[in-house]
């Protein structure tokens, strides 16, 4: 029996690797939707994105109407969950649709697993202090970002990094709608073909520009699932706001 008290579409929000519900603190989804934040358990040894997605699927009520919004690693996870379930929509932000869209350095590490040779504490330190300074809008939301990062254990980072590097999705989830920023340095846009391009958006834009990203998510959610491949949907946030 469904645990949702009404007939609204439930939107499950999947945060990024080092994030939690606070990543969506500036999101204000239309009240027509019931929002549920996905929580990430500590991954087991040799965990894969697929096995992790299988475990997380237990947080989703399969009855009624529901959709997924995933950021970064969360986009990868919700794409794999979507193959097991039937969401009305899948929206990925600052993420990739399949393995070949990951940066070459990530893919090479599956052959030469440097990450496995490094202490888990080093990997957590790198996630906490390098990424915020690497992204162009690092000052915006930095305290929230660091607070979320500190809440994760070193082993969590070591295992989730291994999951990302060894992600085995060869074919993209065609139904996934992809939003990506032009200034994302963690997952550079160069090899990607997103449906919506956010000018100046970084890998942290869900946190730093949450209101703008949420407006776009609300618009996408309001549209039919029917997609027309022959018509390009790629456009900047500026053009979207002009037409809204």
- Main sheet overview: 6 strands, parallel
Q: Let me know the CATH homologous superfamily.
A: Alpha/Beta hydrolase fold, catalytic domain
Counted up, domains total 1
What series of H and E elements makes up the topology?
A: EEHEHEHHHHHEEHHH
Task: Walk me through what this model shows.
The chain is built from 10 helices and 6 strands, in the order ββαβαβαααααββααα. It has a single domain, classed as Rossmann fold. α5 runs antiparallel to α6. The model is unreliable at 1-5 and 225-244 (pLDDT under 50). Helices cover 36% and strands 12% of the residues. With 244 residues, it is of the alpha/beta class. It has a 6-stranded parallel β-sheet, with helices on both faces.
Summarize this structure as a short list of keywords or feature phrases.
244 residues; alpha/beta; 10 helices; disordered N terminus; disordered C terminus
